[in-house]
Amino acid sequence: MLPLLEELDISHAHYRCDLFELISLSCPKLTHVRVEYPVGSWHSDPSEYDEHAFAIAKSMPHLHSLHLIRSSLTNKGLQAIREGFPNLEYLDVRSCFKLTLRGDVFKKCACGYRNIRISNEQTCRRSSIAITGAPIT
After folding, report:
1. DSSP 136
2. Is the pLDDT reported for residue 27 higher than 70?
3. In the chain, what percentage of residues exceed pLDDT 90?
C-alpha cells in the first residue's frame, strides 16, 4: 500500500481495468493520475479504453487532474469521466483520436472543467484546443 501517494504516472504500457481498481485501493489519496498509452494504441479496440475510463471514474472519484494521452477513448468514455469526477479540474485527452468533439458533445463534456487539453492531429493537422481559466458554461 501507498497510503500517502497523491500523484501517479503509469505510462507506456497496456493495462487491464482491474489495475485501476487495485491502484485506488492501494493509494486512497490519489488526486492526480497520468496514463500515457504507447504510440499506436489508438488502433486498439475503443471499448477497452472506454472500460478504462469507467474503471477510473468508478474507483478514483477524488481526482483533481486526469491525463489520458493516446487513448482510444470514445465519447462514451469521456461522458463517464464527466459524470464520475465531481472534483476534476484538469482533463488532458491529447491524441485520443476516437473522440468526436462536434456540436453539443464537446460542450457537455467540457463544461465545468477549469482546464481541458484536446488535440486531434490525425483529423486536423496542428489543431489543438487548450482551454484555461473560467469553466465553460
Report:
1. P
2. yes
3. 31
Question: What CA–CA distance (Å, rounded) separates 23 from 40?
Answer: 25
For residue 135, what is the DSSP state? P
**Fold topology of 7-131:** 3.80.10
Supply 57's cell numbers: 471514474
Compute the distance between CA of residue 108 and CA of residue 123 in angstroms, rounded to an integer. 21
Q: What is the pLDDT of residue 134?
A: 40
Q: What CA–CA distance (Å, rounded) separates 134 from 50?
A: 28
Q: What is the pTM of this model?
A: 0.79
CA distance 37 to 53: 13
The answer on pLDDT for 119 being more than 70 is no
Which of 137, 17, 8 minimizes the C-alpha distance to 77?
A: 17
Give the C-alpha separation, 72 to 49, whole Å.
Answer: 6
Domain map (residue ranges) of the chain: 7-131
Task: Tell me the three state secondary structure of residue 130.
Answer: strand
